[in-house]
Amino acid sequence: MARRGRHGGFCEEAAARGDWCHCIMDGDTIASYGWYATGAVPALDDIWIRFSPSYLYMYKGFTSPAYRGLKLHAYGMARAAAHAVDNGYRGPISFVEVQNEGSLRSVARLGYRIFGTCPQVCVAGKTLAHRTQGCAPYGFELFVPEDAEPPSDRTPRSGRRAPRSDALASGPPR
Predict the structure, then answer these.
(1) Mean pLDDT of the chain
(2) Does 1 reside within a domain?
(3) What is the rounded distance in angstroms from the CA atom of residue 93 to the CA atom of residue 16?
(4) CATH number of the domain residue 22 falls in
(5) Which three-class secondary structure state does DSSP give residue 86?
(6) Number of domains in the chain
(7) Does 5 reside within a domain?
(8) 83 lies in a domain?
(9) DSSP single-letter state for residue 149
């Protein structure tokens, strides 16, 4: 699935990194999807996520409004978890912002657990990220690539103002 649209060249960039998309279709309509990666991925503004190669990282999960309430996100993640384990990974992990209550409910239904938090703040135009101890066993961390251009002002490109809320990392079921 490589299309331009509301996400610009995202699909092409993700595919070039080796990321793949799991879609749930209703005829020709994409009802729900999630992206999966085995290496570092861009996350928020100028911040990237890195994690242990033992895990499959799930990101950019989305369910079309017409299909919400059908638990398609959870179904898609359960299928991806089975695929991950079948292909030698310990399971999938995700990064979920604390205000994303729908995704938090979805991963909770699957038996995922919160293993850490990763607060970020922008100080004097520089993004600083931290991770709690629980993230270390997963090799999970936020980072700003060395070649990243500093933001031109204190407002992140997404329009959010720093400091940003903590985000939660959820791991495979116990």
Answers:
(1) 81
(2) no
(3) 21
(4) 3.40.630.30
(5) helix
(6) 1
(7) no
(8) yes
(9) P
| Digit-coded pLDDT (tens) for 13-53 | 999 999 999 999 999 999 999 999 999 999 877 889 999 99
Structure tokens at 21: 């998309």
- Residue recorded with tokens 């079948």: 86
Please tell me the predicted confidence (pLDDT) of residue 84: 87
Residue 34 lies in a domain: yes
CA nearest to 97, candidates 127, 123, 119, 121: 119
Report the pLDDT averaged over residues 85-108: 87
- pLDDT at position 87 over 70: yes
* Nearby residues of 60 by Cβ (< 8 Å), 6 or more positions away: 33, 34, 35
Cβ(63)–Cβ(25) below 8 Å: no
Residue 172: asked if its preceding bond is cis (omega within 30°), the reply is no
Domain limits at 95?
10-171
